[in-house]
Amino acid sequence: MKKALGEDERLCLGDWCWARGVKQAIKHNLPFKIHTGHYAGTGSMPMERIRPAHLCPLLATYPQARFILMHIAYPYNDELVSLAKHYPNVWVDMCWAWSIDPYSARDFVRRMIHAVPANKLFAFGGDTFWPAAAVAYAEMARQWLIRTLQAEIDERMLSEREAIGLATRWMRTNQQECFDLEGTRAAIRAAASIPAPSATDPDGTPPR
After folding, report:
1. Full domain range(s) for residue 174
2. How many CB atoms lie under 10 A from the CB of residue 199?
3. What is the CATH number of the domain that holds 142?
């Protein structure tokens, strides 16, 4: 009968698995996404355990990795602002955040505007199994993002043009830059020794 792993052994195995996953993400030019903060469901959420500050050793150990921290670490939002400000390899994905607590999410975005480089935030992510819910989440994110940026305009902290530029960056440009799809495909092809696709398909049309 196999003996169950002790606490130290489980932690050691877990650390090895994390390290292996991050190294593979670096090798294949993939971002590494991590849940932060609030748990789904009810009845079991150790508050001290969910603090994003616990990730500092990991972030510092792998500076070449791209870490995407999800859900604004609610309710430890301010800690996540600080991590995104301090670590060049950290991005923040607001998936689920608008529906957890839209007022906290609004305040988080305003703090990010004034504390963190504009290329660090993804303002929307569906984080759901159901396509219809993803549509609803997208609509909610747009409505609350408009309210958030309008408040900045009303207080003369941003011009309308600047607000539109931030919205475009947060909803699309940052994700395109961080995920680097072409670079990721090239890394995967190189690892698998797959030749790059030709400029045209055999029938002379551009590749899809």
Report:
1. 30-36+51-185
2. 7
3. 3.20.20.140
